[in-house]
């Protein structure tokens, strides 16, 4: 007699018994590689990465042809991102920094020599937003753009530059960043 069952006599039970060693081998390899974890309570928020806000803005001030301001944000806010680059679709440049607020919201400040329309168009990425209001904060008039499907965009004319605020922050957090931007000193080139 044959040692093996004929193929037509094999069933799901036989298949399950042959897959168990394969699954165990995969789990052992994943555990050795450290790429597998199980957290019963769900994921935990990690530490927010920090950047040196002063150094980032100073580097932008040195490299860009327009004045760059350094806002004094609340101490509980964590500066966590910085970017310098072209405003899409134009020859203008921008300096953008981002903050995580004490409530876990994100706000960004972009400074650019682009016009208000070009700056809004580049940041909204084709979303149809329109000016829906205005805020007067610390001597600056901020035009508020947005719609129900997008986050708000606040834009102010600083003379040689435009500033844009956007993010998931609350009204109070937007006001705090707008005030800090309005009163921020322009950095000297080094």
TrEMBL record:
InterPro entries: DUF4245 (IPR025339). This is DUF4245 domain-containing protein. It comes from Rhodococcoides corynebacterioides.
